[in-house]
Amino acid sequence: MALCGDCETVIPCRCHLAPPAVHPARRIVRRPPVRRAYVTRREIEALRLVANGHTNRAIGGHLGVGVEAVNSLMQSAFRKLRVHDRAQAVAVALRLGILSLEDVTVPEGANAGWRNSA
């Protein structure tokens, strides 16, 4: 019996064989199944203004951008929060802790007289 000079095993050894062929798709670096998308500070500020009842025009005035930029900003926030409208976005942001109840101001006289209506 002959011995391999490299690995000192009985011939036929596998040390001289080429590595198994790898399909090109296996060489691609895979991304995690769920990509993390974080809500930006600007989007949080817009959500805070939405929670306080501001329109897109008012939000644009406050942030110093146009209405189209606010629309884009809100759509980006909706996508990241996986919601479809403003009310749901505020609810999810509150639930996730992105917004707090202290971020929402209650207008003076809100719900005034509710005890008398019963």
Can you walk me through this structure?
Helix content is 38%, strand content 0%. The protein is mainly alpha-helical. Helix 3 packs across helix 4. The longest helix is centred in the middle third of the chain and has 15 residues, at 67-81. The chain is elongated.
Short description:
The protein is mainly α. Helices cover 38% and strands 0% of the residues.
Task: Tell me the layout of helices and strands.
Blueprint: H1 41-51, H2 56-63, H3 67-81, H4 86-96
Helix pairs in contact: 1-3, 1-4, 2-3, 3-4
SS element count, helices: 4
What is the overall shape?
elongated
> Main β-sheet: number of strands, strand sense, barrel status?
none
Number of strands: 0
The CA-CA distance between the termini, in Å, is: 102 Å
Q: Roughly how much helix do the residues carry, as a percent range?
A: 25-40%
Structural class: mainly alpha
Percent range for β-strand residues: under 5%
Key phrases:
4 helices, single chain, mainly alpha, 0% strand, 118 residues, elongated
